[in-house]
Amino acid sequence: MVTVDDPDDPRLSDYTGLTDVELRRRREPAEGLFIAEGEKVIRRARQAGYEMRSMLLSAKWLDVMRDVIDEVPAPVYAVSPELAERVTGYHVHRGALASMQRKPLPDAADLLATARRVAIMEAVNDHTNIGAIFRSAAALGMDAVLLSPDCADPLYRRSVKVSMGAVFAVPYARLPDWPRGLETVRDAGFQLLALTPDEKAVPLDTVPTGGERRTALMLGAEGDGLTARALRAADEWVRIPMAHGVDSLNVGAAAAVAFYAVTR
Fold first, then answer.
1. Nearest CA among 157, 147, 153, 197 for reference residue 36
2. What is the rounded CA–CA span in Å between residue 204 and residue 229?
3. Strand ranges of the sheet holding 214-219, from the earlier edge strand across to the other edge
4. Which 3 state secondary structure label does DSSP give 111?
5. Strands 52-57, 96-101: parallel, antiparallel or unpaired by DSSP?
6. Could you give the angle at the alpha carbon of 126 between the alpha carbons of 120 and 128, nearest 5°?
7. Could you tell me the pTM of the whole model?
8. What is the mean pLDDT of each run of 10 residues along the chain (264 residues)?
9. Contacts of 156 by beta carbon, 8 Å cutoff, 6+ apart
10. CA atoms of 194 and 39, how far apart (whole Å)
11. 86 φψ region: left (φ > 0), alpha (ψ -120 to 50), beta (else)
Protein backbone atom coordinates (compact mmCIF):
# COMPACT_ATOMS: atom_id res chain seq x y z
CA MET A 1 0.00 0.00 0.00
CA VAL A 2 1.35 3.39 -1.03
CA THR A 3 0.16 6.82 0.10
CA VAL A 4 0.05 9.24 -2.85
CA ASP A 5 -0.33 13.00 -2.50
CA ASP A 6 0.45 14.16 -6.04
CA PRO A 7 -2.50 14.10 -8.50
CA ASP A 8 -0.03 13.97 -11.39
CA ASP A 9 1.68 10.84 -10.09
CA PRO A 10 1.96 8.56 -13.16
CA ARG A 11 0.98 5.56 -11.04
CA LEU A 12 -2.55 6.97 -10.93
CA SER A 13 -2.86 7.23 -14.72
CA ASP A 14 -5.53 4.50 -14.94
CA TYR A 15 -7.88 6.76 -12.97
CA THR A 16 -7.36 10.12 -14.69
CA GLY A 17 -10.27 11.89 -16.35
CA LEU A 18 -12.99 9.34 -15.56
CA THR A 19 -15.69 11.87 -16.48
CA ASP A 20 -14.28 12.36 -19.99
CA VAL A 21 -16.56 9.85 -21.73
CA GLU A 22 -14.98 10.05 -25.18
CA LEU A 23 -11.47 9.70 -23.78
CA ARG A 24 -12.35 6.74 -21.60
CA ARG A 25 -14.34 5.01 -24.36
CA ARG A 26 -11.26 5.09 -26.57
CA ARG A 27 -8.62 4.51 -23.95
CA GLU A 28 -10.00 1.70 -21.81
CA PRO A 29 -10.55 -0.95 -24.53
CA ALA A 30 -7.26 0.03 -26.20
CA GLU A 31 -5.32 -0.41 -22.96
CA GLY A 32 -7.29 -3.47 -21.87
CA LEU A 33 -8.63 -2.02 -18.63
CA PHE A 34 -11.89 -0.99 -17.00
CA ILE A 35 -12.78 0.74 -13.75
CA ALA A 36 -14.81 -0.92 -11.00
CA GLU A 37 -16.37 1.51 -8.52
CA GLY A 38 -17.54 0.63 -5.01
CA GLU A 39 -16.90 -2.29 -2.69
CA LYS A 40 -19.56 -4.63 -4.08
CA VAL A 41 -18.62 -4.08 -7.71
CA ILE A 42 -14.91 -4.57 -7.00
CA ARG A 43 -15.62 -7.81 -5.16
CA ARG A 44 -17.91 -9.06 -7.92
CA ALA A 45 -15.29 -8.29 -10.56
CA ARG A 46 -12.74 -10.33 -8.63
CA GLN A 47 -15.21 -13.18 -8.14
CA ALA A 48 -15.77 -13.18 -11.90
CA GLY A 49 -12.06 -13.75 -12.42
CA TYR A 50 -10.91 -10.31 -13.54
CA GLU A 51 -7.31 -9.51 -12.62
CA MET A 52 -6.76 -6.35 -10.61
CA ARG A 53 -4.21 -3.82 -11.86
CA SER A 54 -4.45 -1.49 -8.85
CA MET A 55 -6.82 0.03 -6.29
CA LEU A 56 -7.42 3.67 -5.37
CA LEU A 57 -8.82 4.03 -1.84
CA SER A 58 -9.62 6.83 0.55
CA ALA A 59 -8.67 6.29 4.19
CA LYS A 60 -12.07 5.15 5.48
CA TRP A 61 -12.14 2.27 2.98
CA LEU A 62 -8.80 0.77 3.93
CA ASP A 63 -10.26 -1.38 6.71
CA VAL A 64 -13.34 -2.33 4.67
CA MET A 65 -11.16 -3.59 1.82
CA ARG A 66 -8.44 -5.05 4.04
CA ASP A 67 -9.07 -8.65 2.98
CA VAL A 68 -8.78 -7.69 -0.68
CA ILE A 69 -5.63 -5.67 -0.01
CA ASP A 70 -4.08 -8.69 1.71
CA GLU A 71 -5.09 -11.15 -1.03
CA VAL A 72 -4.22 -9.19 -4.17
CA PRO A 73 -0.62 -8.48 -5.25
CA ALA A 74 -1.68 -5.34 -7.16
CA PRO A 75 -0.60 -1.97 -5.70
CA VAL A 76 -3.05 -0.05 -3.52
CA TYR A 77 -2.89 3.75 -3.63
CA ALA A 78 -4.22 5.50 -0.53
CA VAL A 79 -5.36 9.04 -1.31
CA SER A 80 -7.42 11.79 0.26
CA PRO A 81 -10.96 12.38 -1.07
CA GLU A 82 -9.78 15.73 -2.43
CA LEU A 83 -6.95 14.18 -4.38
CA ALA A 84 -9.23 11.43 -5.71
CA GLU A 85 -11.55 14.13 -7.04
CA ARG A 86 -8.69 15.99 -8.72
CA VAL A 87 -7.49 12.80 -10.42
CA THR A 88 -10.84 11.37 -11.50
CA GLY A 89 -12.74 14.61 -12.16
CA TYR A 90 -15.63 13.92 -9.76
CA HIS A 91 -16.36 13.30 -6.10
CA VAL A 92 -15.82 9.58 -5.57
CA HIS A 93 -18.81 8.93 -3.32
CA ARG A 94 -18.08 5.26 -2.78
CA GLY A 95 -14.43 5.95 -1.92
CA ALA A 96 -13.08 2.82 -3.61
CA LEU A 97 -11.97 2.37 -7.21
CA ALA A 98 -10.13 -0.49 -8.86
CA SER A 99 -8.53 -0.75 -12.26
CA MET A 100 -9.22 -4.21 -13.65
CA GLN A 101 -7.73 -6.07 -16.61
CA ARG A 102 -10.19 -6.97 -19.37
CA LYS A 103 -10.56 -10.51 -20.70
CA PRO A 104 -10.75 -11.41 -24.39
CA LEU A 105 -14.36 -11.54 -25.55
CA PRO A 106 -15.67 -14.97 -26.56
CA ASP A 107 -16.98 -15.69 -30.04
CA ALA A 108 -20.73 -15.36 -30.41
CA ALA A 109 -20.95 -18.91 -31.79
CA ASP A 110 -19.37 -20.31 -28.63
CA LEU A 111 -21.92 -18.54 -26.42
CA LEU A 112 -24.82 -19.65 -28.57
CA ALA A 113 -23.76 -23.29 -28.40
CA THR A 114 -24.86 -23.60 -24.77
CA ALA A 115 -27.50 -20.83 -24.46
CA ARG A 116 -31.29 -21.01 -24.73
CA ARG A 117 -32.32 -17.41 -23.99
CA VAL A 118 -30.27 -14.61 -25.53
CA ALA A 119 -30.63 -10.82 -25.61
CA ILE A 120 -29.38 -8.98 -28.68
CA MET A 121 -28.83 -5.22 -28.55
CA GLU A 122 -28.59 -3.00 -31.59
CA ALA A 123 -26.98 0.45 -31.25
CA VAL A 124 -27.83 0.79 -27.54
CA ASN A 125 -25.27 3.47 -26.74
CA ASP A 126 -26.51 4.85 -23.43
CA HIS A 127 -24.37 3.41 -20.65
CA THR A 128 -27.17 3.59 -18.10
CA ASN A 129 -29.44 1.52 -20.35
CA ILE A 130 -26.66 -0.99 -21.00
CA GLY A 131 -26.15 -1.45 -17.27
CA ALA A 132 -29.88 -1.76 -16.57
CA ILE A 133 -30.34 -4.33 -19.33
CA PHE A 134 -27.45 -6.46 -18.07
CA ARG A 135 -28.81 -6.32 -14.53
CA SER A 136 -32.23 -7.52 -15.73
CA ALA A 137 -30.63 -10.18 -17.93
CA ALA A 138 -28.74 -11.58 -14.94
CA ALA A 139 -31.68 -11.37 -12.54
CA LEU A 140 -34.20 -12.93 -14.92
CA GLY A 141 -32.11 -15.77 -16.24
CA MET A 142 -30.95 -14.76 -19.72
CA ASP A 143 -28.00 -16.91 -20.75
CA ALA A 144 -26.01 -14.45 -22.87
CA VAL A 145 -26.01 -11.02 -24.48
CA LEU A 146 -24.92 -10.19 -28.02
CA LEU A 147 -24.06 -6.65 -29.11
CA SER A 148 -24.02 -4.94 -32.48
CA PRO A 149 -20.71 -3.21 -33.31
CA ASP A 150 -22.07 0.23 -32.34
CA CYS A 151 -23.37 -0.69 -28.88
CA ALA A 152 -21.81 1.00 -25.87
CA ASP A 153 -19.15 -0.73 -23.80
CA PRO A 154 -20.67 -2.87 -21.00
CA LEU A 155 -17.45 -2.43 -19.00
CA TYR A 156 -17.56 1.37 -19.04
CA ARG A 157 -17.68 2.62 -15.43
CA ARG A 158 -21.28 3.87 -15.60
CA SER A 159 -22.56 0.62 -17.12
CA VAL A 160 -20.79 -1.47 -14.51
CA LYS A 161 -22.07 0.74 -11.68
CA VAL A 162 -25.72 0.73 -12.83
CA SER A 163 -25.64 -3.03 -13.32
CA MET A 164 -24.21 -3.48 -9.79
CA GLY A 165 -21.63 -5.78 -11.32
CA ALA A 166 -24.18 -7.88 -13.24
CA VAL A 167 -22.14 -7.27 -16.40
CA PHE A 168 -19.72 -9.80 -14.92
CA ALA A 169 -22.44 -12.42 -14.45
CA VAL A 170 -23.81 -12.67 -18.01
CA PRO A 171 -21.39 -13.62 -20.80
CA TYR A 172 -21.48 -11.37 -23.83
CA ALA A 173 -19.96 -11.06 -27.28
CA ARG A 174 -20.11 -8.70 -30.25
CA LEU A 175 -21.51 -9.56 -33.66
CA PRO A 176 -18.95 -7.86 -35.93
CA ASP A 177 -21.03 -8.05 -39.11
CA TRP A 178 -24.41 -6.36 -38.63
CA PRO A 179 -27.11 -7.36 -39.31
CA ARG A 180 -25.67 -10.29 -41.27
CA GLY A 181 -24.32 -11.68 -38.00
CA LEU A 182 -27.89 -12.45 -36.99
CA GLU A 183 -27.67 -15.42 -39.36
CA THR A 184 -25.20 -16.92 -36.90
CA VAL A 185 -27.92 -16.77 -34.26
CA ARG A 186 -30.56 -18.28 -36.55
CA ASP A 187 -28.17 -21.03 -37.68
CA ALA A 188 -27.69 -21.95 -34.02
CA GLY A 189 -31.40 -22.75 -33.83
CA PHE A 190 -32.76 -19.54 -32.31
CA GLN A 191 -35.99 -17.80 -33.21
CA LEU A 192 -35.32 -14.09 -33.61
CA LEU A 193 -37.95 -11.95 -31.87
CA ALA A 194 -37.76 -8.21 -32.56
CA LEU A 195 -39.21 -6.12 -29.73
CA THR A 196 -41.02 -3.13 -31.22
CA PRO A 197 -44.11 -1.01 -30.43
CA ASP A 198 -45.17 -1.25 -34.09
CA GLU A 199 -48.88 -2.05 -34.44
CA LYS A 200 -47.97 -4.94 -36.77
CA ALA A 201 -46.22 -6.72 -33.91
CA VAL A 202 -47.99 -9.47 -31.99
CA PRO A 203 -48.25 -9.45 -28.18
CA LEU A 204 -45.14 -11.04 -26.73
CA ASP A 205 -47.10 -13.33 -24.43
CA THR A 206 -48.80 -14.99 -27.42
CA VAL A 207 -45.52 -16.23 -28.90
CA PRO A 208 -44.37 -19.67 -27.66
CA THR A 209 -40.94 -19.37 -26.03
CA GLY A 210 -40.95 -22.22 -23.51
CA GLY A 211 -39.79 -25.81 -23.53
CA GLU A 212 -36.73 -26.55 -25.61
CA ARG A 213 -37.20 -23.53 -27.87
CA ARG A 214 -34.21 -21.26 -28.24
CA THR A 215 -35.16 -17.60 -28.22
CA ALA A 216 -33.17 -14.49 -29.11
CA LEU A 217 -34.82 -11.21 -28.14
CA MET A 218 -33.72 -8.17 -30.17
CA LEU A 219 -33.68 -4.72 -28.51
CA GLY A 220 -33.09 -1.36 -30.19
CA ALA A 221 -31.77 1.96 -28.98
CA GLU A 222 -33.79 4.39 -26.89
CA GLY A 223 -36.09 6.46 -29.12
CA ASP A 224 -35.19 5.02 -32.51
CA GLY A 225 -35.74 1.36 -31.69
CA LEU A 226 -34.56 -1.38 -34.02
CA THR A 227 -33.51 -0.32 -37.50
CA ALA A 228 -35.44 -1.42 -40.57
CA ARG A 229 -32.62 -3.80 -41.48
CA ALA A 230 -32.77 -5.48 -38.09
CA LEU A 231 -36.55 -5.75 -38.23
CA ARG A 232 -36.37 -7.40 -41.64
CA ALA A 233 -33.91 -9.95 -40.27
CA ALA A 234 -36.28 -11.01 -37.45
CA ASP A 235 -38.53 -14.08 -37.56
CA GLU A 236 -41.30 -12.32 -35.63
CA TRP A 237 -42.13 -8.81 -34.43
CA VAL A 238 -43.35 -8.76 -30.82
CA ARG A 239 -44.61 -6.01 -28.54
CA ILE A 240 -45.51 -5.44 -24.91
CA PRO A 241 -49.23 -4.52 -24.68
CA MET A 242 -49.68 -0.98 -23.33
CA ALA A 243 -52.47 0.89 -21.55
CA HIS A 244 -53.52 4.52 -20.94
CA GLY A 245 -52.23 5.68 -24.31
CA VAL A 246 -48.59 4.94 -23.53
CA ASP A 247 -46.88 3.79 -26.72
CA SER A 248 -43.63 2.37 -25.37
CA LEU A 249 -41.31 1.90 -22.38
CA ASN A 250 -37.73 2.91 -21.75
CA VAL A 251 -35.58 0.19 -23.31
CA GLY A 252 -34.27 -0.83 -19.89
CA ALA A 253 -37.80 -1.30 -18.52
CA ALA A 254 -38.98 -2.99 -21.71
CA ALA A 255 -36.07 -5.41 -21.55
CA ALA A 256 -36.96 -6.45 -18.00
CA VAL A 257 -40.59 -7.14 -18.94
CA ALA A 258 -39.57 -9.03 -22.07
CA PHE A 259 -36.90 -11.10 -20.29
CA TYR A 260 -39.46 -12.19 -17.74
CA ALA A 261 -41.87 -13.15 -20.52
CA VAL A 262 -39.38 -15.34 -22.39
CA THR A 263 -37.84 -17.01 -19.31
CA ARG A 264 -40.95 -17.62 -17.20
1. 157
2. 21
3. 172-174, 144-147, 117-121, 214-219, 190-195, 236-239, 202-203
4. helix
5. antiparallel
6. 95
7. 0.94
8. 95 96 95 96 96 95 95 96 95 89 97 97 97 98 97 96 95 96 97 96 94 95 93 97 92 97 92
9. 21, 24, 25, 28, 34, 127, 130
10. 37
11. alpha
